[in-house]
# Entry
Amino acid sequence: MSTKVLVTGGAGFIGSNLCEHLLVNGYSVRCLDNFATGKWQNIIPLIERFPETFEMQVGDIRKLDDCRKAVEGVDYVMHEAALGSVPRSINDPITTNDVNIGGFLNMLVASRDAGVKRFIFAASSSTYGDSKSLPKVEDVIGKPLSPYAITKYVDELYADVFARTYGTEYIGLRYFNVFGRRQDPHGAYAAVIPLFVKKFMTHEAPNINGDGEYSRDFTYIDNVIQMNMLAMTTTNPEAVNQIYNTAFGERTTLNQLVGYLREFLGAKDEVILGIEPTHGPNRAGDIPHSLASIDKAKSLLGYEPKYSMRDGLKEAVNWYWENL
# Structure
């Protein structure tokens, strides 16, 4: 029998990419999603391609019974289900808390009771909060700057307590601005890269919050998949019950990002070369600069990210050009 992995939030951007990678590599996969932000179009091709090894469960992590059903017979859990977005959490902190903390705790309890081997979960670089130190090192954090950041830090604390109290094995991955194929450019809380791609492709000017000198460690989806697989398969006892930055280890300003997008998209449509971005005020809850140290992931997990920001952006732009 093949190893069985539960991917929560598996119909979402990161989750569906994880599901596909696992299936292609011979794992059995169960996907749990309530489609609050996930999309059937991400999942239907997997249902069609892998009828024997892929299982879709429609359910909500806020319901413990759904979580218990989802972990039945599962070896590993990759917990991606969450309500992302700092602005969304500022607008609706209660729902963000219910999903990201209440749902997370439900999944931990269900996984503990089912004897899951390891619980890998999506943590967040927002946990660094107001810490000004660069690069970001896992054990130096500041005060959270948004309800979303609070929820993701609380998840780390819960995972650690479950490891100490119940012997649960976990690995938390602090994602840094993940981007790539299937990331949704539509909706009020679209991430910056797909949003800017959509704007350029429709010949509209993207709007930069602030002067464009805020910087991010933009991380291509295939680097994130690599980290999840290393987290699941590592046999290094020192590597488990740890939190890791999941990034490339370089920072790019929003102004540089716009330049790259104009370069790559402008090669396909010359009109885009002449589009200048507009500027608005800085956004509440945003961290000015984000840059990860990936030394811990390299030394304990053997992480070697394959895609720089520019290389990943080329891949992403090609995907959007074909699919938008």
Residues 159 and 250 are 28 Å apart (CA to CA). The mean pLDDT is 96. The longest strand covers residues 118-124. The first helix runs from residue 13 to 24.
